[in-house]
Amino acid sequence: MSLVFVGMGMMAFLGASMLAIDVGMLMTARNQAQNSADAGALAGAIALAQDDYDDHTATGPAVTSAIAAGKANQVMNAVVSLNVSDVEFPLDPAGQSNRVKVTVYRRASRGNPLATLIASYFGMSTADIAATATGEASPANAMTCVKPFTIPDRWIENQTPPWDPDDSFDLYDSKGKPLANPDVYVPATSASYTGYNAERDKGLEVTLKAGNDTKIAPSFYYPWAIPGNSGGSDYRRDIAGCNTTIVPFNYDMTPEPGNMVGPTKQGMDDLIAKDPDAYWDTVHNKVISSKNPSPRVVAIPLFDPYYYEDGKHNGRTASLRAVNYLGFFVEEMQGNEVKGRITPIGGLYKGSGFGVAPTGAFPKAIRLVQ
Known about the structure:
2 domains
């Protein structure tokens, strides 16, 4: 009878051990598999936003980035099975193809199941694990680390088409009368948005100069005071570093008095010194830097040129309204002018108080939606 009770006790002990060891191992493996899928989905969404929004091919940056990131996160010290067919591009609720879905596996049908310990004595020598995640590169509705100067958003140039960085935004003639065929600006909230686009304008070279208040040109920048800051020292510090104030879209900026040419140059010199070896690769049309991301990739507020010009013409203080945020790689200072390239940039997606993200938002918020 003692042997019977010992035998029954051993069975109970093995059963409890299976629960404690194998089930715990499977739960850990499941969490690790989810981390792998999450990493792959986020990497794929970043590649959509930063490299090519429309390339969903097997050799495209979204697929290859998703697979590389997913496999880099092992499950119980083994690489997951993640093939090209396991990376999908579902549509978001609005019908936009801005999502990347990744499914990772450790299962017998893929040749890499999890081996069990105690459960093998009960006829279960392996177990299957799978996890899925969906990342999204959606329009942002807020921004942080913005620079304390702003340039006008892009418009449709009707006076001297096509638009180029040396044009000026014109609504009125030299006598203040409305032009018969004025330049046109459509904000980012519209499907007909005329402003900068991260895909079309990537790599476009722009030289920024201090605005002179006589006209609006893509190359003219206007200093503004980030909330809580004022004066040249704050202005210089915000150029060289990151002011973590979160600013929304359609935000009225307070202009700084003067053109701030000196602090702008000093701040830019400080910024470039943080990553002196970074450069723009004209062959691959992207920033090359040992830092990821380079601190020389900055966010510049874009103001509404129509709102500014209309206000100035009608006696209202010329107002700087931030309607979008441009990604800009600072290449160099040429005298008092800033030379750089337009580049994609990430943004924020905030909840209550920040409103709906404009459909034409330049920055993209990278997030997991599943």
